[in-house]
Amino acid sequence: MFLVAGMGSRMKDLGARGGRCPACGGSKGLHITKESQTVSLFFIPVASFNSRYYATCGACASVMGLDKEAGRRAERIPGSEISADELSVIRNLNGERCQDCGRRVYPDQQFCPGCGRRIYT
Ligand SMILES: [Zn+2]
Ligand SMILES: [Zn+2]
Question: 18 forms bridges with which residues in the sheet?
């Protein structure tokens, strides 16, 4: 028997949900995307696994990983809110805060402009 099986990944746009962005503190909304690995037979996806959820801030465009449970909830309930402890920042477009003086340092600045501490290596 000849079997055509394939693996791939699929991105699904789940739309915006309410929630505060842990990177900028804004509450303009978080855009949720679901990424899953798929197995297809004869080019028809038959199973998906390893689903991961991501949130993109509507204000600063930073990217956060979303807790799996929270992702499932966001997928089921369109009006659900996402709380800050369900998010982990993957890409912070606001720069990091200096641990010594608290100033924001952006990825193009290797050293803190306030105290000179090295932030990015
Ligand atoms: Zn943000
Ligand atoms: Zn500093």
Answer: 81
